[in-house]
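@channel sequence for tomorrow's demo:
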Amino acid sequence: MKRHHWLITLGLAAATALPAAAQGMYRGDAAHSGVLQAQAPRQFKRVKWSFPTGQRIVSSPVWHEGAVLFGSDDGNLYSVDAASGRQRWMLATNGPVSSTPAVAGGKVYALSFDGRLYAANAATGELLWKFATEGERRFEARGLHGSLPRTQTFADPFDTYLSSPVVADGRVYFGSSDGHVYALDAASGALAWKQRTGDVVHASPAYADGRIYVGGWDGKLYALDARTGNQVWVFQAGVDPLMHNQQGFQSSPAVVNGVVYSGCRDGHVYALDAATGRELWNHNTNGSWVNSSPAVSAGQVHVATSDTALYKVLDASTGQPVREHGVQAYVFGSPTIAGDVVLVGVLNGVLQARDKAGGALLWEFQTEASRANRGWALTADKRFNGSLLYASSWHEGMAQGAERQQAVGSFFSTPLVANGVVYVGSADGRMYALE
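structure tokens (generated this afternoon):
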């Protein structure tokens, strides 16, 4: 979100089978392409079920043997039967599970704000092992986003996610608030290596061709050798030493055809050569954060923005805009391509389904909290009432505004599609199954 003075203004065929490798991790696969091997519905019929947890859900669901697995900020990792919406198992941690789990080899891995990565049996939820980092926290800075007093250090209320693990070649890779990227043995949890970065790492690593790609709050995107952790190259995006607003990678990279695509809070979408880190192009979003992770398909990059509230399609070779569509409010979650449908979750509590070819709105689902519009967080056209939500820059006004904003059931979660059903979590604390 861009700061204005002291006020935040703020053609795939349908697939019935779900390959685990394409559905068991954040953004669909280890390279985080954002493309699922399933067809999303082109018409909305009903809410098949909704499963309540104790707190908001920013974690994205993944698939394992007829169940959807996800974390909740109530501190639990859940497995819910995809057909009935009934709980299969629950694993308790000691902090919000704001990362998306990864499933591989019959195990599920997820990071908790208690500073531990948990590994459990994906079928039963039995804890197998846990690994302690040096601790999790939110990104913080003095005078963050122009907040007052400028000498006060503030935790960023818009730093929403924890890093989601990726599993490849027998290892689990993830970033941490302690400023490291970790590689663990997937079977035992033994540390293989850790590599220091310049700040908090809450983006999710992508794996491709023996390398790990991940960005951090230091405004750098790193390429690391997956075997040794050695740095291969580093790309420096924009920095903002005054307000720390226009910097940092919350977006997780997608690696497709030798190119790394990622959004950044400096108001750009970047395409980098995966081999060298050389910038191929950048797309300027006029200062609007790009926290969503790109989905890449058929020579096009699908992204969404925060302040400008746009779903954008870019040419993957040049970065030139193909088209853009207004979505009314900020987007932090990531577009999902499922067949000929693109799903975009918006922070105003509306999930949009759009035609992949032309971008036309096919259907939308709005949470009850969004319809109720408690505290008048939304205007009549489903935009955020920024002057009401962020009326003050003093002390905790920014954090309080963010909480009121999320009370409409914001969609931070990235949708999963399986057998014609869309699964997505909401800040209202529910996991929804939509068909």
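heads up for whoever presents: The two ends are 32 Å apart (CA to CA).
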